[in-house]
Amino acid sequence: MKPMVCGVFIFTAVAVVACGGGGGSSSGGSAVVPSGTSTVSPPAGSTATPSPTPSPTPAPTATPIAVSGTALEYTSGAALAGFTVTIGSLPNPSTCLASESNTVMACGVPAAPTVTGTTSPSGAFSVAVPAAGTYMLTISNGPTYATLHRSITVASSGLALGTVKVAALSADEQAWLTDVNNQRATVSVPVSFSNLVVDEYAEEQARLWAVNVLSGVTAFGDAGYAPYQTAYSSAAGSVYGAAAVISLNLLGQPSAFVGADNSWMSEKANCPSGNWQTCTYAENTGHYINISNTDTVWIGLGESWNVANPASAYSYYDLMLIEVAGTSPASRKRGQDTRT
After folding, report:
1. Which residues of 38-62 are buried (b: 16+ CB within 10 A; e: fewer)?
2. Which fold, 65-166?
3. Pairing between strand 159-166 and 197-198?
4. Around Cβ 325, how many Cβ atoms within 10 Å?
5. Residue range(s) in the chain whose domain bears CATH number 2.60.40.10
């Protein structure tokens, strides 16, 4: 908010001194005029005119503050040219949830008013915000890339983010995201929003979990999810939290993400009337409940398999679900795994 500057108005009074008759004597009640002083009597019937009023001092104009950085692809380090950088207010969960729908994901994008910019051929960007404060920043380029969602605090001197990374999505990951959204819209009861996007930080952790389980660094199961959920929440400027991670392992079935989705969503049959909102959380319902949750705004997709011998080894699939903080019952905020 700009400070309000009040103008100071000064009026200068003109002294009127009556001239007495006689030779400067004080006798007879006449006024004495000091030597060297002249007097002016206004014409009959007129009054003294005040000096002109000065104009109010104009309010200072706010100086835009720059937010700058360079966007590179997460794996290759290649410059990301032509990406859209958007900065706006942080969404307010108490109001944005009321606007969530299949056409509006109000909690997942910067709130108005927003400013935008575009990355240069080198990936560099500079976007001016109107004042110091806390904002949400996104860097995106459609469904072939993850979207970076990040909370930033801008000082009056500006903010230099340095290098930020955004992952290109594989063909599998792009098709998988489409399938998840379709399943939410056609299987969930009540119908869930079908406009989830891949979040950069969630994607990094989902991929890492799948690779680490394949290599034996991380145990498959609920206990193995916690470090990755913590890592998500610890990432620079993470906005919400990783509410759940659901996973599946399939013997000898690489690129089987549709089968994973089908397995999770088939748990609808174990919920009375298929209603995920009123269904009791259990081993044979939790995946369906978690994946259908409409408080989820972003997602991460992880898959891995033994490239050298895919037919005789397990492949691993996991979804990291990012949810608006503090909106769902605790029963919907768990890791959940399925072995097949």
Report:
1. eeeeeeeeeeeeeeeeeeeeeeeee
2. Immunoglobulin-like (2.60.40)
3. unpaired
4. 14
5. 65-166
Closest by CA to 125, choosing from 69, 57, 178, 77, is 69
Buried b (16+ CB within 10 A) or exposed e, 229-261: bebbeeeebbbbbbbbbbbbbbeebbbbbeebb
3-state secondary structure of 288: helix
What size, in residues, is the chain? 340
Q: In what order do the strands lie in the sheet with 148-154?
A: 111-118, 84-89, 133-140, 148-154
Taking the C-alpha atoms of residue 147 and residue 168, their distance in angstroms, rounded to an integer, is 10
pLDDT at 35: 46
Instruction: Provide the pLDDT confidence category of residue 326 given band limits of 50, 70 and 90.
Output: low
Tens of pLDDT, residues 222-269: 888 999 999 999 999 999 989 889 999 999 999 999 999 999 999 999
Structure tokens at 18: 């009556």
CATH classification of 171-339 is 1.10.10.10, yes or no?
no
pTM of the model: 0.80
Tokens of 282: 């259990």
> Please, are residues 246 and 180 in contact by the beta-carbon 8 Å criterion?
no
- Backbone CA torsion sign across 171, 176, 181, 187: positive
- Tokens describing residue 103: 């056409």
Residue 66 main-chain phi, psi, to 5 deg: -85, 135
Cα(194)–Cα(181) distance, integer angstroms:
4
Count helices and strands (H / E) in the chain.
6, 12
Cα separation, 163 vs 157, in Å, equals 19
How many Cα atoms occupy the beta-carbon half-sphere of 165 within 13 Å? 15
Largest CA distance in the chain: 130
Select from 228, 293, 241 the least CA-distant residue to 264.
293
Which of 234, 218, 185, 195 lies closest to 337, judged by CA?
218
**CB count in 10 Å sphere of residue 327:** 18
